[in-house]
Amino acid sequence: MPHSDFAYQSASELAHLIKRREASSVDVVRATLERIEASQGVLNAFITVCRDEALRDAAEIDQRIGRGEDVGPLGGVPLHVKDLVNTAGVRTTFGSFMHEHTVPKSDAISVARLKAAGAVLVGKTTTPEFGHMVWTEAPLFGRTRNAWDQGRTSGGSSGGAAVACAAGLGPIGVGTCAGGSTRIPAACNGVVGFKQSLGLIPHDMAPESFANMSYITPMTRTVLDTALMLEAMAGPHPADVHSFGMSAVGCVEAVRTAQDLKGVRVVWRPYLGNTVIDSEVLRLTADAARVFEGLGATMHAMADDMEPTEPMWLVLSTALWNARFADKLPEWRDRMSPTLVRQMAGGASHTAEMLQRAYLKRTEIYRKIQGWFGHADIIVMPTLTRTAVPLQEGLFEPIEIEGKKIDTVRKAWFPYTHPFNLSGNPAVTLPAGFHSDGLPVAIQLVARRGADALLCRAAALFEQARPWADAKPRLPFEV
User: Fold this and answer.
1) What does DSSP say about strands 215-220 and 137-138: parallel, antiparallel, or unpaired?
2) pTM score, whole prediction
3) How far apart are CA 228 and CA 254, in angstroms?
4) Other C-beta atoms within 10 Å of 236: how many?
5) Which residues does the annotation mark as catalytic?
6) Would the N or C end of the chain have less CB density within 10 A of its end CB?
7) In DSSP terms, which residues pair with 299 in a beta bridge?
8) pLDDT tens per residue, the chain (479 residues)?
9) What HEC string does the chain produce?
10) Is the peptide bond before 24 cis (omega within 30 degrees of 0)?
11) How far apart are CA 77 and CA 355, in angstroms?
12) Are the C-beta atoms of residues 42 and 477 closer than 8 Å to each other?
């Protein structure tokens, strides 16, 4: 099989080819590494590429297959990991000069489990410094560009992972999501971004486990690959207080056996604490939502009863950033991202009372959202209020929607993602077509806590009805 054919094969397809010895893991990994190298000057999706280690591990997979050993459901498949997640023997920078030369001694739990399932690490993808914002850029490495239009943002903070999946630089990636950091770049780049139920994938790198709202997540091009990653990564671990009793068993089966959504109650809500959305995005996502009715679900619309969650989310986030990094400012301020330093300064005046009020508000939001599922099983909404914004967009400046200045990016572009980091509900963004500007548009599906398998089933059926994996960006580095 020509190397060029590997680029957009799904992980499940590649694992099948490798297991049957119709392709070697070495050939697949080498082709992926060559494509990463060719793309870097255009997309800049990787901070570190571990060529020698990847080829060594791929050769070991091929040898094990030759001996008749079981190499796991992801055996021989290239894997990339966001540079916020530890990888043994491969530097993990957090997008920061503070960790420019940090090489962890051990893998994060999620990475170790993916390797145990046979995945081969090819490199570390880009992230803003400590994942602090929705653009993927940092003083350490520069900007990551959108796979579909290099004049637009990749989104963030898992922009490198999303661009890598979209551009055929590896079919599966590990991202993270604290306020939409998986779903936003997935929506910008036309791939699948899944934020699981809180605790389903143990987060051993969260500095504060009890109040955690950050997730280590899969990033893929197909729903089946997402389910394969979920089952590989999930399961309880003592490092994460929320992980006990959690299991993703059944997600792969839910995808492979999905037939219809009879008896499932689906709700469409176009607004979530916001009042403005691009009219074409609204039309495309509303049209996509009607697919579920054709799959047998009952459908009704839901009025908006949510107030913006960004102010409270920002209190929690800036408190955490200051707790982690304030003592580093005297030494590192001049080499840190100005956007991170500015947000830390903005949160420095927050009091303990304000922080506790934010936690009280988080509980209120949690209970409100759980109440929605008294009359719904899946809630469908847009993922973003417009397509990917220009590459030079400012984090603190108003964004434009249909030529009008609206509000800052966190308030006006992704009001749909913050709430579910706070509530712990599983949420997945799926490609839902293309805007007239040529960029992807996405819908977000949300389910009740613990209903990750149902979410996988609904996503798989939507994928069957509205397939997207054959859509490929036109990339300047390709011949």
Assistant:
1) unpaired
2) 0.98
3) 11
4) 15
5) 82, 157, 181
6) C
7) 266
8) 455 689 999 999 999 999 999 999 999 999 999 999 999 999 999 999 999 999 999 999 999 999 999 999 999 999 999 999 999 999 999 999 999 999 999 999 999 999 999 999 999 999 999 999 999 999 999 999 999 999 999 999 999 999 999 999 999 999 999 999 999 999 999 999 999 999 999 999 999 999 999 999 999 999 999 999 999 999 999 999 999 999 989 999 999 999 999 999 999 999 999 999 999 999 999 999 999 999 999 999 999 999 999 999 999 999 999 999 999 999 999 999 999 999 999 999 999 999 999 999 999 999 999 999 999 999 999 999 999 999 999 999 999 999 999 999 999 999 999 999 999 999 999 999 999 999 999 999 999 999 999 999 999 999 999 999 999 999 999 85
9) CCHHHHCCCCHHHHHHHHHCCCCCHHHHHHHHHHHHHHHCCCCCCEEEECHHHHHHHHHHHHHHHHCCCCCCCCCCCEEEEECCCCECCECCCCCCHHHCCCCCCCCCHHHHHHHHCCCEEEEEECCCHHHCCCCCEECCCEECECCCCCCEECCCCCHHHHHHHHCCCCCEEEEEECCCCCHHHHHHHCCEEEECCCCCCCCCCCCCCCCCCCEEEEEECCHHHHHHHHHHHCCCCCCCHHHCCCCCCCHHHHHHCCCCCCCCEEEECCCCCCCCCCHHHHHHHHHHHCHHHHCCCEEEECCCCCCCCHHHHHHHHHHHHHHHHHHHHHHHHHHCCHHHHHHHHHHCCCCHHHHHHHHHHHHHHHHHHHHHCCCCCEEEEECCCCCCCECCCCCCCEEEECCEEEEEHHHHCCCCCHHHHHHCCCEEEEEEEECCCCCEEEEEEEECCCCHHHHHHHHHHHHHHCCCCCCCCCCCCCC
10) no
11) 43
12) yes
Length of the chain: 479
**Hey, what domains does the chain have and what are their CATH numbers?**
3-465 (3.90.1300.10)
Query: What is the rounded CA–CA span in Å between residue 130 and residue 136?
Result: 11
As given in the structure block, the two tokens for residue 194 are 């899944």
- Residue 352 carries which side chain, given as an amino acid letter? A
Q: Which amino acid is at 12?
A: S
Measured CA to CA, the distance from residue 83 to residue 369 in angstroms comes to 32
Greatest CA separation found in the chain?
A: 63
Q: How far is residue 216's CA from residue 175's CA, in Å, rounded to a whole number? A: 6
177 beta partners: 215
Distances (CA, A) of 434 to 20, 144, 147, 169, 316: 36, 21, 14, 22, 35
